[in-house]
């Protein structure tokens, strides 16, 4: 029978601590393996430090963590080649320090009532009792003349300390697993846990003599040591079956806090939840959480990658973490580094910047709206696709993309032939250059489009008269326009279908001539004709001659007043419904269009019947008015199901009458 060196009780102040530990956060029982492996790696690193400093002259074993499974005995053993412990150190670090850490944690846990403790670090060695009926420690200290000792505890406050036959420096922790924790006897389960929590620890972890972790953390390497392919390989490893990222940012600083990491900009897809963090949080290369929401700025949530910092407090509640000063500073550092990286890409590889803009733009715009410091970093390279093209009189300046050089405020022009365009041949510009380029035509006014397809007619009309249009057509731009108006309070932003600039209208004097028979001008007659035919009290019919001879110019256009439309969109957003087409809108009838001129003649030939009904020509004029309005609505996607049904019926009736005549 082994000699018992000492038996005793662990001094505690928290009642029933072991039942609490064993029942603690059942779904997180698996973290015991992370805690024990982390302790082993820490012991190995301490011995390495002692050896390098000359405080240990013995022969150190190869650094490794070894995991053994014994299904018959129902035990799981974790061994390290670290500095080991003497009997006194076991009593100090296991019976006092380690247990007091566990007690402190449980006290915090009970007092806060917050089950969502970050990382659960601090529980350490005693997390093994969550899955074990009995835990043994077999250890030999590196200290000269030290004797190996054996410690055991059966989950009560009693322990036994006895001599051990161990002959190698290091520690083995053996767990006698509970009946309902037998899953940890399966090698596949151990491999999965090591990959999840300990894959990047700087020590080989072996299971049945096979190394099962990568034991190298790319984010710990120097900024210039990784190739692009190595960054991509790491991303593919973290996020298999995903498209390659657009670009990445390597974080590395040790003052005034210690942060390392690699953040990737993914291609945004509709199924990405931009409110959920996809960044993995590590502490000293040990995985802590998939959720980094308290550590990174909200606008960077869709980023992916790794952040590793020992300065982030982990044994606290998330509510505490959100208000921690160091965490706030780390968050600001991450935002600044992301901004610097984007600025660097804009200056050094404009083609890549523009080709990535569809995805990058969402990050940058959202960040600018939510973080004033970030806005100041990026505001000069928030770019917009523009209708100005190389060779256009109004586009010559847009085609010359200017890039600030490292020399300071000097600017150099990029060669026109190297300026990238998108698939439609459009160029990109920032708002400052747009306003400068167009100040002679329309000072402090921005024309923009939100849907290239449905607003194509309006865009073409502006282009025909030399008016440059910017595209704000992503899902975030509805909010970003409002943000821009706040930033540029003296600038008016007009959607191309909101109102038409005077430059687009031909003030035809002939339209002001009064017809003696009707005592109305031609424009007034056309306006009256449409108002009578459509009979929509909330519709504002206006008549203008559009200044273009293009055959594509329509006979009429529906305009949605800016403020009315925005109010409708805001109400829909608050009520979480789709914005309905506003009843109050404008029908602008193009009096210069041949169809409208012919319609005017047709109306003049209308004869009112003796019974007060209209002649066939009058019916035809009414049908044409309705058809013109329908086409204008269709261009604005203003039809609901009933509207489309009525349109089809009226179209059939109109075509029938035309063929009869």
Summarize it.
With 661 residues, the chain is an alpha+beta fold.
What is the fold's blueprint, element by element?
Elements: E1 6-9, H1 17-23, H2 31-52, E2 65-70, E3 75-80, H3 87-112, E4 132-140, E5 149-153, E6 158-163, E7 170-177, H4 187-197, E8 205-207, E9 210-211, H5 228-238, E10 247-253, E11 259-265, E12 278-283, E13 286-289, E14 304-308, H6 318-322, H7 325-348, H8 350-355, H9 357-370, H10 372-378, E15 383-386, H11 396-399, E16 402-404, E17 411-413, E18 427-430, H12 431-437, H13 439-442, E19 445-449, H14 456-464, E20 469-471, H15 477-487, E21 492-495, E22 514-515, E23 520-521, H16 522-534, E24 539-544, E25 556-559, H17 562-574, E26 585-590, H18 594-604, H19 616-635, H20 641-660
Parallel strand pairs: 2-8, 12-14, 19-20, 19-21, 24-26
Antiparallel strand pairs: 1-6, 2-3, 3-7, 4-5, 4-7, 5-6, 8-9, 10-11, 11-14, 12-13, 15-18, 15-20, 16-17, 22-23, 25-26
Helix pairs in contact: 7-10, 9-10, 16-18, 16-19, 18-19, 19-20
């Amino acid at each position: 029978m082994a000699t018992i060196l000492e038996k005793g009780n662990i001094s505690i102040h928290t009642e029933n601590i072991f039942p609490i530990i064993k029942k603690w956060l059942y779904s997180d029982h698996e973290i015991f393996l992370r805690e024990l492996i982390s302790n082993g790696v820490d012991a190995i690193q301490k011995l390495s430090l002692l050896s390098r400093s000359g405080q240990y002259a013995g022969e150190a074993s190869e650094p490794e963590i070894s995991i053994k499974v014994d299904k018959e005995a129902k035990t799981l053993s974790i061994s390290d080649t670290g500095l080991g412990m003497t009997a006194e150190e076991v009593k100090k670090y296991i019976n006092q320090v380690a247990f007091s850490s566990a007690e402190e944690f449980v006290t915090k846990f009970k007092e806060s009532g917050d089950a969502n403790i970050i990382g659960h670090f601090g529980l350490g060695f005693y997390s093994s009792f969550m899955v074990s009926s009995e835990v043994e420690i077999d250890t030999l200290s590196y200290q000269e003349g030290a004797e190996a000792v054996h410690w055991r505890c059966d989950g009560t406050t009693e322990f036994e300390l006895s001599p051990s036959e161990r002959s190698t420096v290091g520690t083995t922790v053996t767990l006698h697993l509970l009946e309902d924790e037998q899953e940890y006897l399966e090698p596949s389960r151990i491999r999965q846990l090591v990959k999840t929590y300990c894959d990047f620890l700087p020590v080989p972890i072996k299971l049945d003599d096979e190394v099962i972790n990568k034991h190298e953390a790319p984010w710990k390497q120097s900024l210039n040591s990784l190739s692009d392919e190595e960054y991509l390989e790491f991303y593919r490893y973290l996020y298999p079956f995903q498209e390659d990222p657009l670009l990445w940012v390597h974080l590395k600083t040790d003052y005034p806090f210690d942060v390392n990491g690699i953040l990737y900009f993914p291609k945004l897809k509709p199924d990405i939840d931009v409110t959920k963090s996809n960044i993995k949080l590590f502490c000293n290369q040990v995985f802590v959480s998939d959720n980094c929401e308290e550590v990174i700025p909200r606008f960077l949530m869709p980023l992916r990658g790794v952040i590793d910092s020992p300065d982030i407090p982990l044994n606290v509640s998330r509510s505490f973490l959100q208000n921690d000063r160091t965490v706030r500073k780390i968050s600001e550092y991450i935002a600044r580094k992301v901004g610097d990286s984007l600025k660097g890409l804009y200056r050094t590889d404009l083609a890549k910047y523009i080709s990535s803009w569809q995805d990058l733009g969402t990050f940058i715009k959202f960040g600018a709206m939510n973080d004033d410091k970030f806005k100041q970093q990026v505001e000069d390279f928030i770019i917009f696709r523009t209708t100005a093209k190389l060779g256009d009189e109004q586009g010559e300046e847009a085609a010359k993309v200017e890039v600030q050089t490292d020399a300071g405020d000097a600017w150099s022009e990029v060669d026109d032939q190297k300026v990238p365009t998108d698939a439609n041949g459009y160029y990109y510009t920032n708002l400052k250059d747009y306003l400068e380029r167009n100040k002679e035509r329309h000072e402090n006014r921005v024309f923009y489009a939100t849907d290239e397809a449905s607003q194509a007619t309006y865009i073409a009309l502006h282009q025909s008269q030399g008016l440059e249009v910017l595209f704000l057509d992503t899902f975030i731009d509805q909010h970003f326009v409002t943000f821009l108006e706040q930033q540029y309070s003296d600038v008016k932003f007009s959607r191309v279908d909101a109102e038409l600039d005077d430059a687009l209208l031909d003030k035809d004097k002939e339209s002001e001539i009064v017809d003696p028979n009707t005592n109305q001008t031609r424009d007034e007659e056309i306006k009256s004709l449409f108002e009578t035919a459509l009979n929509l009290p909330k519709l504002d019919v206006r008549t203008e001659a559009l200044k273009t001879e293009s055959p594509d110019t329509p006979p009429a256009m529906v305009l949605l007043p800016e403020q009315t439309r925005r109010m409708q969109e805001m109400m829909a957003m608050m009520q979480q419904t789709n914005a309905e087409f506003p009843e109050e809108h404008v029908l602008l009838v193009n009096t210069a269009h041949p169809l409208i001129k012919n319609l005017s003649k047709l109306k003049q030939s209308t004869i009112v019947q003796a019974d007060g009904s209209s002649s066939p020509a009058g019916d035809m004029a009414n049908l044409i008015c309705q058809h013109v309005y329908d086409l204008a609505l269709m261009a604005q996607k203003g039809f609901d199901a009933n509207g489309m049904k009525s349109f089809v019926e009226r179209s059939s009736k109109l075509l029938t009458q035309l063929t009869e005549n």
